[in-house]
User: Which sequence fits this backbone?
């Protein structure tokens, strides 16, 4: 297995595709998607364009859909949800489809949607993602961070490093054997340094600071947790993610 990490969608190659592509937006799109599916959402459908989201979701009955729109960390006017995983409780999302468009995370998913296998990952389902990839046994894996408007982000890179570290330990191979680019080594190093202080790292991150200004303290705490959910969102058709469950995780 060869693993590459790309910090933003813009850095991801466009002339080729990995066997398995993992999109990461810890703060907060992929954390929200994982939580919504774990809470019983029928599916998550992603959009980069808000108007396209509204048009597609118009074909669904209001009690079968949730429109989630976020720009700049804030909820878009007229949408049901913003981009907080804490909104995704079973009573609100159970049996419904989450139509979601965010500043960064949905772009990352759309960038890699041509890969044979596309999944969404966050810290909260890190172990389940590692187990899924190990079962799949792809020759090439890409982890694509969402960043922030084209820029590197600490939270996505530390999550990529956490996944890479999990694969490294499970495969029992050397870092040289696993890493296909330098970013893998950097991400693992970041995770090893901060793995016991992830919330502190989020407080240092530029997007973490942005969310703190929006009073999203509980979101940061929730998203900094590791291995609390066993759901792996897997692309069933372009832009539509459904649940793949791993064996229950015992914390």
Assistant:
């Amino acid at each position: 297995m060869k693993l590459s990490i790309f910090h933003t969608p813009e850095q991801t190659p466009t002339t080729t595709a990995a066997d398995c592509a993992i999109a990461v937006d810890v703060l907060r799109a992929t954390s929200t998607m994982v939580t919504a599916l774990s809470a019983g959402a029928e599916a998550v459908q992603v959009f980069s364009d808000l108007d396209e989201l509204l048009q597609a979701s118009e074909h669904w009955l209001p009690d079968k859909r949730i429109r989630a729109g976020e720009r700049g960390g804030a909820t878009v006017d007229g949408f049901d949800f913003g981009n907080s995983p804490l909104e995704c409780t079973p009573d609100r999302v159970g049996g419904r489809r989450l139509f979601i468009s965010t500043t960064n995370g949905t772009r990352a998913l759309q960038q890699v949607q041509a890969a044979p296998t596309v999944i969404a990952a966050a810290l909260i389902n890190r172990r389940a993602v590692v187990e899924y990839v190990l079962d799949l046994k792809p020759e090439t894996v890409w982890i694509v961070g969402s960043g922030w408007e084209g820029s590197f982000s600490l939270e996505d890179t530390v999550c990529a490093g956490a996944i890479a570290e999990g694969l490294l330990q499970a495969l029992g191979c050397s870092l040289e054997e696993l890493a296909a680019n330098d970013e893998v080594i950097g991400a693992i190093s970041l995770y090893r340094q901060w793995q016991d202080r992830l919330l502190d790292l989020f407080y240092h991150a530029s997007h973490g600071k942005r969310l703190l200004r929006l009073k999203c303290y509980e979101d940061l705490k929730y998203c900094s947790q590791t291995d609390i959910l066993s759901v792996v969102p897997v692309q069933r058709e372009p832009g539509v993610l459904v649940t793949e469950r791993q064996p229950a995780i015992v914390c």
Summary: Strands lie at 2-6, 20-24, 43-46, 65-71, 74-75, 97-101, 117-121, 140-145, 231-237, 240-245. The chain has a mean pLDDT of 93. The radius of gyration is 17 Å.
